[in-house]
Design goal:
The protein is of the alpha/beta class. It has 15 helices and 15 strands. It has 2 domains: about 140 residues, Nitrogenase molybdenum iron protein domain (Rossmann fold); about 180 residues, 3-Layer(aba) Sandwich (Rossmann fold), CATH 3.40.50. Helices cover about 45% and strands about 15% of the residues. Helix 7 packs antiparallel against helix 8, helix 8 packs parallel to helix 13 and helix 13 runs antiparallel to helix 14. The longest helix is centred in the first third of the chain and has 35 residues.
Length: about 375
């Protein structure tokens, strides 16, 4: 009897031991499952952010090119539930909404400029919120409210549009590894940049084209790029001279016609941050400004910048193609062999798996006037 009790006691101990091990294993498995359900990234402000892995609802605040980058990155805009009005206007008047009509369902009323209505944001129930790295106050507000908030920078790489795009894609590829496009985007964009450099690097300083970027334009205002904005990088990248480089200012700066006459640029590139077209410059249809004496106007070298998935003056998915387009417009004899429409189709197909028709590709280089508005009103 004692032996039986002893055996039973031993068996009971074994059962308890195995149960404890099983519970421990389950707890460990649970911890592993919890860890595998999230992803941790370092954003463009150096913040470590933990986000749920199965992201279904994305809101983009005041970093306007990012909705278009996300849509092309996913080849879908179904996850984008909120974005700012300037992003929406560009989407409505570009190829983006034709390829991804669902992007027009995104809400815009939660943000006014850089101010976010937190109640309206909460109604969108986002899994992740992207915001401009320069708006640290908003970042703190979002984080304090419990959102997974990720800072995205447009100037961390000194307005180098190629490096900015590459780093945006790197970050998105870390967040969404199943859609990793880092290598493809970087390889293609750097190959385009290197090809352009091979063709323009030998141009003597005295022979470099003088270019003027008409950033914003109205009856009362002309603004351009100083030496710390995208215009400076674009000009340098295509072997040209930004006439506004003497202006020591970050982002855009206001100028007058007297200054423009003094610079006398060879080329004028109009961004899609205003509604002007080349004919408005040739015919002096905006305000009382008279452009007739400027060399670029006399030579009919005024161009509207492309509007691909977003306004191409900034970094975005169209950056490699924009670089080629600017280089060819400025130095056509050095890029005679470059078919921009064909290159655009090649880029979207090879890098993103997106097939564009000839008509869709060509339309990127003939943007609608309405795209220059920054409000849907």
């Amino acid at each position: 009897m004692k032996k039986v009790k002893k055996v039973l006691c031993i068996l009971l101990c074994l059962v308890l031991l195995l149960s404890a091990v099983g519970c421990s294993a389950k707890k460990d498995d649970g911890k592993k499952n919890d860890d595998s359900a999230v992803v941790t990234v370092v954003d463009n402000n150096g913040n470590t952010v933990t986000v749920k892995k199965d992201i279904q609802r994305i809101v983009v605040c005041d970093i306007y090119p990012i909705p278009s980058v996300l849509a092309v990155f996913f080849d879908s805009a179904s996850k984008i539930v909120g974005m700012a009005q300037p992003s929406m206007v560009a989407a409505k008047n570009s190829l983006l909404s034709e390829l991804y009509p669902e992007i027009l369902n995104a809400e815009t009323g939660f943000i006014d400029g850089t101010t976010v209505n937190m109640e309206a944001l909460a109604a969108l129930n986002p899994d992740v919120v992207f915001y401009s790295s320069g708006n640290k106050e908003l970042g703190k507000q979002l984080t304090d409210a419990g959102y997974a908030a990720i800072a995205i920078s447009a100037n961390k790489w000194q307005y180098n549009a190629i490096e900015t795009l590459n780093n945006w894609i790197d970050l998105l590829s870390q967040l969404f590894p199943e859609n990793n496009k880092s290598e493809k985007v970087r390889t293609y964009s750097e190959s385009v940049y290197n090809m352009v450099q091979e063709r323009v690097s030998s141009i003597p300083d005295a022979e470099k084209a003088k270019v003027f970027f008409l950033f914003q334009y109205s009856a009362s205002n002309i603004s351009t790029s100083g030496n710390s904005f995208f215009g400076q990088w674009w000009a340098t990248a295509i072997g040209a001279k930004n006439v506004g480089e003497e202006l020591d200012s970050d982002k855009s700066t206001n100028v007058n016609m007297e200054q423009i006459y003094k610079w006398d640029p060879d080329f004028i590139f109009i961004t899609n941050f205003n509604t002007a077209k080349p004919d408005d410059i040739y015919n002096n249809t905006v305000g009382s400004f008279d452009w007739s004496g400027v060399k670029a106007v006399k030579d009919k070298n005024v161009y509207k910048m492309p509007l691909g998935m977003y306004r191409t003056y900034t970094a975005g998915v169209d950056t490699p193609i924009t670089l080629l387009w600017l280089a060819k417009a400025t130095y056509p004899e050095r890029f005679e062999d470059v078919d921009i429409t064909a290159k655009t189709k090649e880029y979207y197909s090879d890098v993103f798996g997106i097939t564009l028709t000839d008509e869709q590709s060509a339309r990127i280089f003939a943007p609608l006037t309405q795209a220059g508005k920054l409000s849907v009103k």
